[in-house]
Structure formats: structure tokens, C-alpha cells
Amino acid sequence: xxxxxxxxxxxxxxxxxxxxxxxxxxxxxxxxxxxxxxxxxxxxxxxxxxxxxxxxxxxxxxxxxxxxxxxxxxxxxxxxxxxxxxxxxxxxxxxxxxxxxxxxxxxxxxxxxxxxxxxxxxxxxxxxxxxxxxxxxxxxxxxxxxxxxxxxxxxxxxxxxxxxxxxxxxxxxxxxxxxxxxxxxxxxxxxxxxxxxxxxxxxxxxxxxxxxxxxxxxxxxxxxxxxxxxxxxxxxxxxxxxxxxxxxxxxxxxxxxxxxxxxxxxxxxxxxxxxxxxxxxxxxxxxxxxxxxxxxxxxxxxxxxxxxxxxxxxxxxxxxxxxxxxxxxxxxxxxxxxxxxxxxxxxxxxxxxxxxxxxxxxxxxxxxxxxxxxxxxxxxxxxxxxxxxxxxxx
Length: 394
What we know:
Elements: E1 2-4, H1 14-22, E2 28-31, E3 34-38, E4 45-49, H2 59-74, E5 79-81, H3 92-95, H4 104-114, H5 119-122, E6 126-132, H6 135-149, H7 154-157, E7 162-163, E8 166-167, H8 173-178, H9 200-215, E9 234-237, E10 242-249, H10 254-272, H11 279-283, H12 287-300, E11 305-306, H13 309-313, E12 322-323, H14 324-335, H15 343-355, H16 358-365, H17 372-388
């Protein structure tokens, strides 16, 4: 989020930032292996790899450098970057400003159909991960594994416990508002966890085609009728040969983001290799069952208790219940020999295991009955963590 350096209020100037670095208003500006680009809301800037990266190792320092450069460029506007998945006091109904330049017709269509005022569109930041596949055989394995594992992700990544200047009953409030932002046309987001479909043809017939059909009366020009309309938290992108995961909240620094991603990818690989259970066992789970797991974790994060023994058995666990924080520690130990989680990421994960998700650490840093000044102090510290590339340890 781009915020005013003094007040920490959102500052809708991503177009000015991009113009200052590119010489003109652009939607994307490449800088070596990374790129900056716009988003729907004018107070959000995205930093991403410029095309696929061969590995996650080594990305955290590169992202740290880009964050520092963004902040250097924002200084001329009296602005800075704020991390975490939601702004703690933004009023999305009065403060949202849509990107008004190239691709604006897309954003206008979203706004006209769904009304982008509100937290579910105007106030949320997530870390997107795209994992590649080739052909139906790889898609089947990858989609099956991601459907199983993604409901647990907020137990590592939740960072949005505060909105409207108050603590919400969800440590991952971003996912709570995200899951409801398309309720006018329910097929667009489904139950966040995708249906049990494992071929391209079946995905088109059961997910894409109903979605396009349902939105067509509101979108007669077909502006939004592309694969990216799909707003599930795990979404197939056949146009790029990847599955995109959108369930992860942005953390306080790139080190934490990459650490969570490394662990998530390592466990996903173990599932695709049928380390603990067969592919047929992974495929049989209905999205409603997995959605129930997800929403329990969205509410309680690492303290959510999994009471379904059949779900735990997917990871080789014979217990009848387990907290999700403990489950992730078990999974971390299981993949520790794979060398897919480097030492820096391991250190970041140990902080999350011992001190809790960023959401939990934010809540612990706030006094009981906190007010705007308390929020400003904590979120200013988060801004410092992002600038300095360090974990938040209140």
C-alpha cells in the first residue's frame, strides 16, 4: 500500500510513481528481473518477477532492493510503502480511487458489476504464486495437491486482523471479505477452493463456461470473459500454463513472504509425489469439505484446530486432531531435508512458529481498547520492517 509518510493514510498515486520511474504513465515497468505494475486501486503498487523465476531462493534480497527503490521514489511525494494485507483504518467506500489509465475499461466493468467500494476490492493486498504444469497429467497432480494444502495457508500467512480501526473476528479478514466480493455472481469465486476437476476440458465445462454465462447479461461486450475473471483462491491459468494461488496475505517483509512460499512449494511437491497419500485420495475431497477447513483457519489462523482425522491422514498423521500451527511445524520438519527451504527462510519460519502469524503479532502489539494513535504506532513499525527487510517482533 502507498501511504502518506506522516499520517499513514492511503495515498492514491501509483500512476505518479510509475511515471516518475518510467518517464510516462505506464501499467508496468520492468527493472531487470523484477517489475512494478499497477493494480485496480490507485493506492496499490505490485512488485513481481518479470516473467517466471527458476527458483524462489535468492528472490527475497531482490525484492528488498525493489522495495527500497520504491520507497526512495515515493519520498518525493511524501509517501512510503505499508505492508500487511489490509489498511487498518481506510474507509474503502470514500477513499477508493480506481486506476484511471490504460485497462481502465476492465476496472470500470468490475466496478459497475460488483461495486468495488468495500474492503473486498478496495483494501486488500495478497502475495500471488504461480506454479507451472504441462498437460493434463501434471495439472491433475498439481491441482489435487493445491486443493488439499491451500486451506492451511492462512495459518502461516494471516496478516489482516484489523480493519475499520477495530480488531475483527478473523485473523485473516482479507480472505473473509475476498470470499464475498463477487456474491452478485457466485460462480466467479465459487467456494474459493476450486471444484474437483482435473483436466482442461472439464475445467472449462464446469468452471469457465458457467462463469462466462452467468456474467454475460452484465457484461454484454465480453470485457471480463477471460480466464482471469476466475476469482477462486486457487485458479487455473491455462493461458500461462500455471495455477495461481491467491490465498496468502502479504507479510511485513519479502523475507517472510518468500519463506512461506518456500515451505508451501516444498509441501506441495511432497503431495504431488504422493509422499503421504495417493493421488486418488487427494482427488476425492469435495470443495465444501476443504472450504470448511479454510474458513476455520481464516478465523483462527495457527490456533485453528483440525478435527477431521481423514484430512490429517493426507499428511501421514494418525492423530484425531491437531492445531494448524503444529501441523505446519510437522510439515516443515518433513521437508527440511529437501533443500527447498533455505537457511534464511528457515529462520523466518521459526519466528512464525514461535511468535505466531503476523496477524497474531500485530494484535499482541496493540493494547486493549486500542485507538488510532496505537494503530499508527504499530503500523509505522511495520513500514520500518518493510523498508529495512526484517521481521516484526513487537
